[in-house]
Each structure stands twice: as structure tokens, then as C-alpha cells.
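Side project, low priority. Logging it here so it doesn't get lost.
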Amino acid sequence: MKIGQLKSIGHNVADSSASGIGLMIGVFEMDIFADASANKSGFVCIDFVHGKIIDGKISTATQRAISHYKEALPGLCARHGVNFEEIKVLNVRYGTDPVYGRHFTVTVESMDGKRSTDQYIGMPGRKYKKQVKRALQVATSHILHLDSKDDVVNERQE
């Protein structure tokens, strides 16, 4: 199995559950970010391979959804051409905070030891580095735009 395939599966599961709708498991309403914010730590960590909560407390609805994801995971793997038995770890840490808002971190590992951790921000989940780069570009563009307006104002004043 290629690690890219496993990362794709991890992102699909994480993004589906983060959406609050759970289309992957057949329209299932939940709010994993509300669960995360209800915890003192501000996050919750889920093991999707075993359908267990690693850290934090979650609502009954979210717990039921996690069970459905565990059941649906082998089918998703098959559609991606991956043997479910080759997945050692598929953990997702969901969090919410004033700086990053809704975010999640996906950690995957195959039985042969290939491991990856990716961070995502927002809904739908976008890679952390890309999101930060985009935000910096927008901020820089805005600052340059303001500077050009200041130049025009300064020219008029002189």
C-alpha cells in the first residue's frame, strides 16, 4: 500500500465526520467540534480503526457515528484499492480554539511502518500549510493595497 492512499482515506474519514453530516455513513448528524470544545483540553481524539475514543469525551450521537465509521471503513478501503487489514493506525484529533478555529490532525500508519501526520484547518479541511500560505497572501495583498492608498493620499497632501 502507498502511504498516499492511506492519507487519502484518513482525510476522507476525518473530513466526513468533521462536516457534521457524515455522508460517508449515510447522513448521520453529529457535531464533533462541539464535543471537542466541551472538553477542558479543547480537543477529542478518535481511533477509527477500532472505533474508540482515545482522548476526551463525546456525545452519544457522535459515539454512534464513530461505530458506523468503523463499520464503513473496510468498504472505503476497498474502493481505494487498499486492504483494510494493512491499516495499523487511523487516528484523528479534532480541536477548536480562538486562533485556528475548527481544525483536525490525521495520523495514519500502515502495518509495514509507513506513517504520516497531516494537519487541516476549516471546513472542508484544507492542509494547514496551504491554508496559512493563502492567509499570508491575502494579508500581504491587503497590506500592499493599503500602502498604495497611503501613497496616493501622501501625494495629494504634498
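Brief comment: The CA atoms of residues 16 and 24 lie 6 Å apart.
Revisit when time allows.
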